[in-house]
Design goal:
The complex is a heterodimer of chains A (262) and B (304).
Chain A lengths: L1 H4 L8 H12 L3 H23 L5 E3 L2 E3 L1 H32 L2 H5 L6 H29 L11 H20 L8 H14 L11 H7 L3 H14 L5 H28 L2
Chain B lengths: L1 E10 L2 E11 L4 E5 L6 H8 L7 E6 L4 H9 L2 E4 L11 H11 L4 H14 L15 H12 L6 E5 L7 H16 L3 E6 L2 H7 L2 E6 L2 E6 L1 H8 L3 E6 L8 H5 L5 E4 L4 E5 L2 H10 L6 E6 L2 H9 L6
Parallel strand pairs in B: 3-7, 3-8, 5-6, 6-7
Antiparallel strand pairs in B: 1-2, 1-4, 8-9, 10-12, 10-13, 11-12
Helix pairs in contact in B: 3-4, 3-5, 8-11
Classes of the chains: A mainly alpha (262), B alpha/beta (304).
């Protein structure tokens, strides 16, 4: 089966699943709007609130304000949280509760189209949220450089990684109870992945462990882009996120096939 | 239009379908009859080009589903056992969105959806949320949805399970109409009367194999007597009845709650039983059904 998945992955029919989600969410605009505000609230409370209490922090070779330090971390977190909604929570429901995908697979769409369609949807939402977040960063004065616009594709890359890994992960959940596990992964990632403070504060061995975290890699990448301080390590971070994305998508399609069209 | 040879479906070490052969002609109504776990649904999933056969050959519209899955599915309509409708969408949108999966243009869909709502007698409920529909309405909507691509072949998995008699009859009537219009139907069911009503020809499945094939009447004629006498004997264990009743019937079948006598003339046989001094608590004379065929072939009853 795996040999079938890779060469011809999905088709333009995957767009139909995007369309399906669009119809389904048309009536749920409140949820849509909340996605804009959640990261913005973080940005305001932590950025403005803590900015005056915490001094400047080093990014690359330069000192920046705490708000400037923390904003890219919030952007990366927003990519992660969005992905949990769009690629873990909702697909789990469609896969195991409402059996939406079963109905879809009786049409010309294939499991790879379903997986890809969910990715299009998640990335489209992420693109909107990331753009609005970056505008807010600029308006609040948290961006120190016009390179901040590169945070947009950077955030999309992070979303791709989280979405695809989440999509694969959701196939392993058995019931709503298992979502405690999701929270158990999500929360420590959020708190300890260098989003609020530099991981250089950790002892070396712990820092090494944290650096595996995709959220850390995403936050570090976005921080470099936002402040316009580039280094070669960022290419590695981008490659790491892309690899997670492709690997996750491949695994997701495999798992979808095993569950939906065994 | 459909041909299966030595079709096998394995899930790990478990063989759900163990080498079945069947052919379905265009315009035919073909039934798969059998108890839960007989391999009907696994067969349906292969026939609807959703899951791949583990072994054997399958040709649908003359095409191999391994290579032409999307093309085949584009010409099939599927009514799954659980409706799997979009609960968040309106009745109308359920059909329209489903049509989009087949790449149908919106303009065509608007028109077609009106026709299908009419067909499913749901025009008045077009803007209702699916959640608010009754079971029978949901099932009709699922059938309407499956017709959106004007399928040449409609596959229905247990179409009337869980419906009340009135809803069943309305559904059967709609399916007759489709049949008259030339749509080929494949129906799985564990209801005898449904199979007798709807199917031109059927196969009886048990434990992943086909144990009999033919038209309903033909199967009954081949595997059962014309009439059946059902006798109930209060609380007494009916086991010893086998020998006692043997002289009065071609065949005696002892079930936990009743004894069945397979006979040519039910009233004659019943008179003979009464004449012998036996006193059943209740009696029933009826025509043989597919249920009896199934019992004969597998030694088990169909509905558990």
């Amino acid at each position: 089966m795996a040999t079938r998945v890779l060469p011809a992955f999905g088709s333009r029919r995957s767009v139909r699943l995007f369309e399906r989600n669009f119809y389904a969410y048309r009536s749920q605009w409140l949820m849509f709007v909340s996605g804009f505000f959640e990261p913005l609230f973080y940005l305001l409370s932590i950025g403005i609130g803590l900015n005056h209490l915490v001094g400047d922090l080093p990014v690359g070779g330069r000192l920046v304000s705490y708000a400037t330090f923390v904003a890219p971390g919030m952007l990366a977190t927003s990519a992660m949280n969005g992905a949990v909604i769009d690629s873990v929570f909702n697909p789990f429901f469609r896969l195991k509760i409402s059996h939406t995908y079963d109905a879809v697979l009786s049409t010309p769409l294939d499991v790879t189209d379903v997986a890809l369609g969910e990715v299009w949807w998640a990335l489209s939402r992420a693109a909107l949220y990331a753009a609005s977040f970056i505008v807010c960063m600029v308006l609040l004065g948290d961006a120190t450089s016009w390179w901040v616009v590169l945070c947009w594709p950077g955030a999309l890359l992070a979303s791709l990684a989280f979405t695809c890994v989440g999509l694969a992960g959701c196939t392993y959940l058995r019931s709503w109870q298992d979502f405690d596990v999701v929270t158990l992964v999500q929360l420590p990632l959020f708190l300890f992945s260098g989003t609020f403070f530099p991981i250089s504060l950790y002892p070396g061995w712990l820092g090494a462990i944290v650096s595996v975290s995709p959220l850390y890699q995403a936050a570090a990448l976005l921080r470099g882009l936002a402040t316009g301080q580039f280094d070669l390590l960022m290419l590695g971070r981008a490659a790491y996120l892309a690899a997670l994305g492709l690997g996750g998508l491949w695994l997701a399609a495999r798992r979808f096939r095993a569950i939906l069209a065994p | 239009m459909l041909e299966a040879r030595s079709l096998v479906k394995r899930f790990g070490a478990f063989e759900a379908v163990r080498g079945v052969d069947f052919e379905i002609a265009r315009g035919e109504s073909f039934g798969f009859l059998g108890p839960n776990g007989a391999g009907k649904t696994s067969t349906m999933r292969m026939v609807s080009a959703v899951s791949q056969p583990s072994a054997g050959s399958l040709s649908i519209f003359g095409l191999d589903p391994r290579a032409h899955g999307p093309e085949i599915r584009g010409r099939i309509g599927v009514v799954p056992q659980d409706d799997s409708l979009e609960l968040e969408l309106s009745v109308r949108l359920n059909i329209e969105m489903y049509g989009r999966y087949f790449d149908l243009p919106r303009r065509v869909l608007r028109e077609r959806t009106d026709e299908l709502l009419e067909f499913a007698r749901l025009s008045e409920r077009a803007d209702s949320k699916v959640d608010d529909l009754s079971g029978g309405m949901k099932r009709r909507l699922t059938i309407a949805r499956a017709l959106v691509n004007r399928p040449e072949l409609l596959i229905l998995d247990e179409p009337t399970t869980g419906l009340d008699p009135q809803a069943r009859h309305l559904l059967w009537e709609r399916l007759y109409r489709l049949k008259r219009e030339g749509v080929t139907l494949i129906i799985t069911t564990h209801y005898m009367d449904e199979a007798e009503q709807l199917c031109d020809r059927l196969v009886v499945m048990d434990s992943g194999t086909i144990v009999a094939e033919g038209a309903p009447r033909e199967l009954i004629g081949r595997h059962s007597s014309r009439e059946v006498v059902e006798l109930r004997f209060g609380t007494d264990a009916p086991e010893q009845m086998q020998d006692v009743l043997a002289p009065y019937a071609e065949r005696v079948e002892v079930l936990p709650d009743r004894v069945l006598l397979y006979v040519a003339d039910g009233d004659d046989a019943l008179r003979a039983v009464h004449g012998s001094g036996l006193a059943p608590v209740s009696t029933l004379v009826r025509r043989s059904s597919l249920e009896d065929v199934f019992l004969r072939l597998t030694g088990r009853t169909l509905v558990d």
